[in-house]
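Students often ask why we bother encoding 3D structure as a string. The short answer is that it lets us treat folding as translation between two languages. Here is a chain of 222 residues written in the first language.
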Amino acid sequence: MNNTMQAVWISTYGGPEVLEIRTVGKPLLNDEQVLVRVRASSLNRADLLQRQGKYPPPPGFPAEIPGMEFAGEVAEIGSSVRRWKSGQRVFGLIAGGAHAEYVVTNEHLLAEIPPNLDWAQAGAVPEVFITAHDALWIQADLRPSETVLIHAVGSGYSLPARSRRSPTEHRARLTKSNNRNPWASKPGSSCATTLMTCPPPQKNGPTAKASMSCLISSADPT
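And here it is in the second language, the structure alphabet:
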């Protein structure tokens, strides 16, 4: 078996020009891990900051290879893995190294890709959708029919958060940019919506007070 792979490599800190494609060693898996053949990955802000030297990955993950989410197929499993088998389509989050042909991760940190998603679509799901699901349903314990205030409604994290709704939910949304209002109001337009625009927050002065007032009134579904 070939023990090498190709990966995006941060040759030095800087702009996009510092990125290279290099042949590197394929990651080794232990008994509880899964080796995934990556078919698609996404670009996140953390990847850009890592390239600039402003976002070091945690210990155990390559500082030279960016990438936090991936979609691919199971290539190899450890001796203790019971949840997956070779060839299954999976996606997941990882602390770094996903911009490569292979990644290794714990079997419990993978999910099966729904059949209606292709590789590119699946590769763009884990970071924002898992974060939104965890924030709303796990951390905040959100339940159907409850009201939720979503800040920066046009952002990548807010869009999947808005998809986690019940048909009868009233939702208040908040954006600071007028030019995002028409675009941001399209997804989820079947539910009742209050879309408000606030001035950008500042630490002191009347702008900060105006922003706070907008936050309070936006949270009122009436």
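Translate back mentally: The chain has six helices and ten strands. Keep this in mind for the problem set.
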